[in-house]
Design the sequence.
């Protein structure tokens, strides 16, 4: 039996609208791992925001992986080892602060189990806090406070403004940073050439597998790279239209156990 790698975005893919893994989806994923296939959770979330699902799926027991920060860090769940990591250039943080302040955006990064916010949290920063179960710490001088290695910054803006801000940032940092939206209101700021596909490619090479062995499932803009990269790229029924256009296969929604359909069609059968 050829080993497969099931790569799963979390929000809107692995979890339903209540941010829960349904019993049917959990059974399906564990049946994949029991048959010797690999499972990778690939999310824009910080690593601590993924731990709940790592534990629920028993990825340590089965030898799974966490690809966090949109690919900025990969962790082997069994050993706890960071097997790949990229950080933002130090000059980026103060420049991003100036941009966010000028345009009245939110700006955050992550430190341990905390979200570090440059300004009083807007509704989108508060949502990020709730999604990940992480406390928000507002700091007086973001530029001085963030003197540690950063895998990702997140700029938040209303849905009607975010595309314009994303384009401005892309034009300014086309040679130094990777910038894209994971949600209509979340602008992800990553080291250059870091996305889910690029990091997944490095990881698969390290474990002796190829992209043809990968089944990548997602619903958001930041999933497009890995959906295009995979042997089988899957968009959830609730995915953004651009994600569906990039996919080889469109499954049912995250509230209809769409991943069970994928597992049955492409792995178990």
Sequence:
């Amino acid at each position: 039996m050829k080993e497969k790698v099931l790569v799963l975005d979390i929000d809107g893919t692995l979890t339903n609208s209540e941010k829960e893994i349904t019993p049917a989806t959990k059974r399906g994923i564990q049946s994949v791992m029991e048959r010797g296939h690999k499972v990778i959770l690939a999310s824009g979330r910080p690593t601590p925001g993924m731990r709940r699902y790592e534990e629920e799926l028993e990825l340590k027991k089965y030898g799974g992986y966490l690809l966090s920060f949109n690919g900025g860090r990969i962790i082997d769940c069994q050993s706890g080892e960071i097997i790949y990591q990229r950080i933002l250039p130090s000059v980026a943080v103060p420049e991003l602060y100036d941009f966010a302040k000028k345009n009245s955006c939110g700006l955050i990064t992550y430190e341990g189990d905390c979200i570090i916010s440059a300004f009083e949290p807007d509704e989108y920063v508060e949502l990020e806090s709730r999604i990940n179960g992480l406390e928000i710490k507002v700091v007086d001088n973001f530029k001085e406070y963030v003197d540690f290695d950063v895998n990702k910054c997140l700029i938040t803006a209303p849905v009607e403004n975010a595309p314009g801000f994303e384009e401005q940032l892309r034009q300014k940092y086309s040679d130094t940073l990777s910038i894209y939206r994971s949600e209509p209101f979340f602008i992800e700021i990553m080291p250059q050439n870091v996305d889910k596909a690029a990091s997944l490619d490095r990881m698969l090479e390290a474990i002796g597998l190829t992209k043809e062995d990968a089944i990548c499932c997602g619903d958001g803009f930041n999933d497009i790279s890995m959906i295009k990269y995979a042997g089988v790229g899957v968009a959830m029924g609730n995915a953004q239209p651009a994600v569906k256009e990039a996919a080889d296969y469109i499954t049912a929604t995250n509230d209809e156990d769409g991943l069970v359909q994928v597992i049955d069609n492409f792995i178990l059968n």
Q: What stands out?
A: Residues 43 and 68 are 5 Å apart (CA to CA). The longest helix spans residues 23-34. The domain at 5-86+194-268 is CATH 3.40.50.1000 (Rossmann fold).
